[in-house]
Amino acid sequence: MTGEEKGMQIFTLPTGEAVYRYQKSIVVPFNGKRKVLSTAHRNGGYSEELKAVFNHDATKGAGVACTLQADTYQEHMKLITEELGLDADYTAGITTAAAMENVAIKTATYKDLSVTAIVTGGIEVNGGRVGDPTTWHEVDGKHHEIKPGTINIILYIDGNMPAETLTRALVTCTEAKTAAIQELMLGSMYSRGLATGSGTDGTILIANGESSNYYQFAGKHSKLGELIGLAVIPAVKEALFLQTGASPEQQFSILRRMQRFGINLNRIWDQFKTVNDLAKPEFVCHLEKLDKEPELVVLASLYAHLLDQLDWELLTMAQTAYEAEMIIKRMNPKSTDASIIEWEGMTKDAVIEEMCLKMLACLVSLLEERVCIG
After folding, report:
1. 204, 19 in Cβ contact below 8 A?
2. Which residue among 119, 257, 290, 299 is least packed, with the fewest CB closer than 10 Å?
3. Measuring CA to CA, how many Å separate 304 from each of 236, 300, 323, 327, 353?
4. What is the pLDDT of residues 244-269, one digit of tens each?
5. Domain limits, the chain
6. Rounded CA gap, 70 and 374, in Å?
7. Exposure of 33 by Cβ count < 10 A (0-12 exposed, 13-18 middle, 19+ buried)?
């Protein structure tokens, strides 16, 4: 690459290799033999022949849909690679709709072993839980879609290892990504479950094929596996914060905890306005205050976890219905709709929906009280 193509150097890896940011991309050129395992659509899978990898922001601007520059995604990636001044036959890249300026880089070390995670991410629109209902089906490789979001990880391991160990490292890396998401309690956009990633996540793992340190294990019992977690978890959290503001502070919210169950501002407003003539701006002001009341957030969090455990069949409908009533009564002792759900003969989905309606009624009642007091 020329000096202009190299752009801004944003990090130096423990191997001495530079990480660059230019043309809406993060680029890692190699200084020697590297073993790479990736989800890239071009030159993906396992390879010992690559000379560089990259992560590319595919957006064309705010509100503009991501589009392909060629008939196929593979050809599209070839054009992107060439625009970056890289050899398209010896480069693997992944794409996202997250901004490269919001990259997070974390390194974990132990003696001579280091693991560096280079992460961009956002799942506000595209977050999903494995097993969620899908929105498209691939036929003859013709369909590809990039939605705003995506957690892309470039994981550089300064150690040598066989292909099977690098593959195990991919499993550990994915577990770490999911752990970060679940520690933030981020919900799926396609179901009422907690998210495990986005629908378009990509990962590139790199091992130093010239290192004299050789590793055969990358699971959670190995030091390498530990370092992968220590690098990936904070990097994913930081990337999500930089891109979308996701953080413990943001998640300390009734609406954030309950939105995956369909409880949101508009649904509360629709019910509130049927018996109240308050203007919506004033309603929103009251709701924003209610949304952050500490005791109510704690109780709503417990309520959401009750719903999860019923969904996972860890609690019975009877147990869940009883404890849900206790929580609603604590949230609003004056509530007239805190009776135990008549769950017998109902399906699990019906009970969960009924519990959501009771929470909705509780929040509307609390808002009415605050409006009267105000």
Report:
1. no
2. 290
3. 24, 6, 12, 11, 12
4. 999 999 999 999 999 999 999 999 99
5. 3-246, 254-373
6. 59
7. middle
